[in-house]
């Protein structure tokens, strides 16, 4: 015959268990209300940066301002072929990417930025390589196409191995129908690794 024994739990352990249970209940209530991501939210959130380069998708674009971050296609050499579906690139909320140009659909102030990186491992003695990168605006506001941002650099002055980056950025008043695109000189020296060549803007 087996005798069952009643195990006496110390009061301090019971109190600790009650406190932990109350804390877990509180967290279950407060997390959804405060916007803190839960395990379910994390599992349902798509990866923004995978090996396939899935495009970042926004569930609700109602209150979002126009924005885009484009990256150069690394598989097309000697050219800046802008893509919105590589790594962390995206385009959102009214902006359009068409024929390697960005199309504005809403009037407003925009911060426009771009970077091009160049590199090489050969230099002709006494010669310099000229590099340039610019953002051009095609708009009804002006009679001709306008260079919004532009910079130039030279390479091969002191070293055989060389690398140069040109970053441009500025704020501009853009209108519906405006078109932006980049123009680059020295494209045969472009470096197209992730984070080295990009083009984007966002509404302020």
UniProtKB/TrEMBL annotation:
One Pfam match: TNF
Keyword Cell membrane: no
Top-level lineage group: Eukaryota
Gene Ontology molecular function, alphabetical: cytokine activity; tumor necrosis factor receptor binding
CDD domains: TNF (cd00184)
SUPFAM superfamilies documented for this protein: TNF-like
Keywords: Cytokine, Disulfide bond, Membrane, Signal, Signal-anchor, Transmembrane, Transmembrane helix
Localization per record: Membrane
Gene: lta
Bilayer topology annotation: Single-pass type II membrane protein
The protein, known as: Lymphotoxin-alpha
Domain THD: 66-204
Lineage: Eukaryota, Metazoa, Chordata, Craniata, Vertebrata
Coiled-coil segments on the chain, per record: none
Function in brief: Cytokine that in its homotrimeric form binds to TNFRSF1A/TNFR1, TNFRSF1B/TNFBR and TNFRSF14/HVEM. In its heterotrimeric form with LTB binds to TNFRSF3/LTBR. Lymphotoxin is produced by lymphocytes and is cytotoxic for a wide range of tumor cells in vitro and in vivo.
Subunit structure as annotated in this protein's UniProt entry: Homotrimer, and heterotrimer of either two LTB and one LTA subunits or (less prevalent) two LTA and one LTB subunits. Interacts with TNFRSF14.
First and last residue of the signal peptide: 1-35
Keyword S-adenosyl-L-methionine found: no
Source organism: Xenopus tropicalis (Western clawed frog)
């Amino acid at each position: 015959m087996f005798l069952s024994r009643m195990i006496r739990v110390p009061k301090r352990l019971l109190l600790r268990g009650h406190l932990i249970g109350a804390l877990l209940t509180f967290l279950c209530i407060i997390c959804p209300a405060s916007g803190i991501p839960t395990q379910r939210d994390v599992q349902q959130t798509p990866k923004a940066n995978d090996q396939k380069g899935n495009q970042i998708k926004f569930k609700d674009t109602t209150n979002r301002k126009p924005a885009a971050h484009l990256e150069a296609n690394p598989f097309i050499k000697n050219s800046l072929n802008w893509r919105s579906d590589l790594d962390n690139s995206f385009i959102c909320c009214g902006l359009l990417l068409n024929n390697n140009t960005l199309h504005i659909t809403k009037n407003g102030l925009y911060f426009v930025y771009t970077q091009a990186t160049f590199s090489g491992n050969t230099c002709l003695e006494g010669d310099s390589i000229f590099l340039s990168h610019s953002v051009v605006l095609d708009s009804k506001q002006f009679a001709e196409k306008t260079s919004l941002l532009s910079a130039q650099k030279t390479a091969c002055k002191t070293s055989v191995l060389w690398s140069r980056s040109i970053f441009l950025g500025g704020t501009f008043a853009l209108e519906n129908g405006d078109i932006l695109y980049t123009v680059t000189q020295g494209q045969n020296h472009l470096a197209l690794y992730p984070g080295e060549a990009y083009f984007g803007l966002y509404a302020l």
